[in-house]
Amino acid sequence: MNERPAPPRIVQRGLYADELQIGAIYEHRPGRTVTEADNVLFTTMTMNPQALHLDAAWAAGTEFGQRLVNSMFTLATVVGASVAQLTQGTLVANLGFGEVTFPAPLLLGDTLYSETEVTAVRPSRSRPGKAVVSLVHTGRNQHGEVVVRAVRTTLMHCAPTDEPAPGSPS
């Protein structure tokens, strides 16, 4: 009986801190077309009663003439789109966000495209085998207009080494 060898198993992961390229812009695809259901569910789930997101008649009378996508949904989607490519299984912790801006509104039916620039990677001073990584996440609509920009700092794993950890028995 001829048994076939087991096929290789490949587990998707993000990049280790030392695999990131400073200055590189990672484009996260596919984009995400935002629906009315996305906006209403996120807005109500997070207990945000803002009429600008929920009340079509009221929003029609604003300078935008329609409801806007909840900006926290926009931010969360842009960051979330980066996970599979950059931080899946390699992130230790989200350390914080610096500047977050929403220079243009995201509208219902818009497609959100996400990208991340790596601006700095430095070894952690307190956590061996880890690095502090600075990122800038940008979301653009289908017209290329920036709808969100967020500066983020994370703690990420470095690639594993075969060397014993300092202080461990050899």
From TrEMBL:
It holds the Pfam family MaoC_dehydratas. Transmembrane segments: none annotated. This is Acyl dehydratase. Belongs to the enoyl-CoA hydratase/isomerase family. It comes from the Bacteria. Residues 22-134 form the MaoC-like domain. InterPro entries: HotDog_dom_sf, MaoC-like_dom, MCH/BMMD.
